[in-house]
Specification:
With 418 residues, the protein is an all-alpha fold. Helices cover 82% and strands 0% of the residues. It has helices spanning 3-28, 32-53, 59-70, 72-90, 94-99, 101-129, 136-146, 151-158, 165-196, 204-234, 239-260, 264-283, 286-313, 322-350, 360-366, 372-379, 385-416.
């Protein structure tokens, strides 16, 4: 893609984001990101309707071709995600996070694994009943990509809902870390599925090595490079330069992580927590802190707008069928049930040693939104008969999660939290 085409594509996306944001702000008055998804989805449905009425216009094909040039997997997973996670982690209080490390750690690891297996087994049974032949290994792939909550969606909704500080820390902390763990689990399960289908074999030692390199390697990259940036900022007081250092930090840790096959999301979270806590306390003046936080809030808003707009339009690139639509509808309660078990199990065990807010399990279950990461992971699957079914079901769950759960989480909090 040439530079002129990139500029034109960026102009179209940013203009639509601004236009749809304006329409939402003036008339719909939904939370910004949810409003963008709803309007983009309505525009997509309108495009499909026009295409059915006048197929000679080839409107849907043209829109799908434009979406194909964006490549959500590359754009989000290898570009936007690190920026969004760093921006989100910068606003999380590390002390509060540390106080709830066991709850967050267990939900971000054991919870993801529990949900992966429940969704995998449940979807295997459901798809078999609907006559959609999907091997068990690929059903586990679906479980792995849909189980982690999306930090972009979750943190965006937390800005609009008042939640007790202790519960907010659990929701935000889990969403920041479980996507990194989820991506690692997804990578491992895809390798197993490909191996089962006749690809290169993968053994237990390969799985352990991959897990350690991705998680521990990502955390080390985030800490080491983040600490170097922290020390550099500690010795100066120039807000423009310090903003530039934080921006360079995110791109550098992403490049290093990708080069050594470590987890860039985990690196971004660790670096963001370090700069957002120790950096703002000990390495920045009040003026610099204000500029850095304002800059990253703006980056967060712009990238969120672009991402949720693309999610709304992604329906144009899907090939729906009756059975896959039914599967998507049935997958919604399955994913919610798996989320409930994945949350209730560690929380139930930890209640023996620590206090939890009344209604925490219900809020954590309903507030565990899925978003662009799940769609991007589904799009990244290798070509094959399994991909389209997994993509349609994933999209159905994500749209329900963002619109229905996102719009009602405030009511759930008011009703159950005491």
């Amino acid at each position: 893609m040439g530079i002129i085409e990139v500029v034109r594509l960026a102009a179209a996306i940013l203009t639509l984001s601004a236009l749809f944001g304006y329409i939402n702000h003036r008339w719909l008055k939904l939370p910004h990101t949810i409003g963008l998804v709803v309007i983009a989805l309505m525009a997509s449905m309108g495009t499909i309707a026009i295409d059915l009425a006048a197929p000679e216009l080839q409107l849907r094909a043209a829109a799908a071709a434009m979406l194909g040039r964006i490549d959500l997997t590359e754009t989000l997973m290898h570009g936007m995600l690190s920026l969004l996670l760093f921006a989100g982690a910068m606003h999380v209080n590390l002390d509060i996070l540390a106080e709830r490390k066991w709850a967050i750690g267990s939900m971000a690891t054991a919870g993801v694994l529990i949900s992966t297996f429940i969704v995998g087994a449940g979807s295997w049974l459901l798809l078999d009943l609907l006559g959609i032949p999907l091997p068990f290994a690929w059903c586990l792939v679906f479980g792995a990509l849909i189980s982690p909550t999306d930090p972009v969606a979750v943190l965006g909704i937390l800005k609009t809902v008042k939640v007790p500080e202790s519960l907010e820390a659990k929701i935000a902390g889990e969403s920041l870390f479980n996507d990194g763990v989820g991506v690692v689990v997804f990578t491992i399960v895809v390798a197993i599925a490909v191996s089962a289908g006749g690809g290169e074999a993968i053994g237990a030692a390969d799985i352990v090595k991959l897990f350690l390199v991705e998680t521990v390697g990502g955390a080390l990259i985030g800490f080491v490079v983040g600490y170097a940036a922290y020390r550099a900022m500690h010795g100066i007081d120039e807000h423009n330069l310090e903003v530039l250092i934080t921006l360079a930090l995110v791109f550098l840790i992403t490049a290093i992580a990708q080069a050594v096959h470590a987890s860039a999301p985990i690196a971004a979270v660790v670096a963001g927590l370090l700069i957002g806590n120790h950096g703002t306390r000990f390495a920045m003046s009040e003026k610099t802190t204000l500029h850095v936080q304002t800059f990253w809030s703006l980056i967060d808003e712009i990238l969120n707008s672009v991402l949720f707009l693309i999610i709304g339009f992604e329906v144009l690139a899907l090939a729906f069928s009756g059975p896959t639509l039914v599967a998507a509808l049935l997958a919604i309660p399955l994913v919610l049930a798996a989320r409930l078990v994945a949350v209730a199990t560690p929380v139930g065990l930890l209640r023996l040693r620590e206090q939890f807010t009344t209604g925490a399990v219900r809020v954590l279950t309903w507030g565990g939104l899925r978003g662009g990461i799940s769609v991007a992971l589904a799009l990244s699957l290798p070509p094959g008969p399994e991909k389209q079914a997994i993509l349609v079901v994933t999209y159905g769950v994500v749209i329900f999660s963002i619109i229905v759960q996102g719009l009602t989480i405030g009511r759930v909090v008011k009703r159950v939290v005491r």
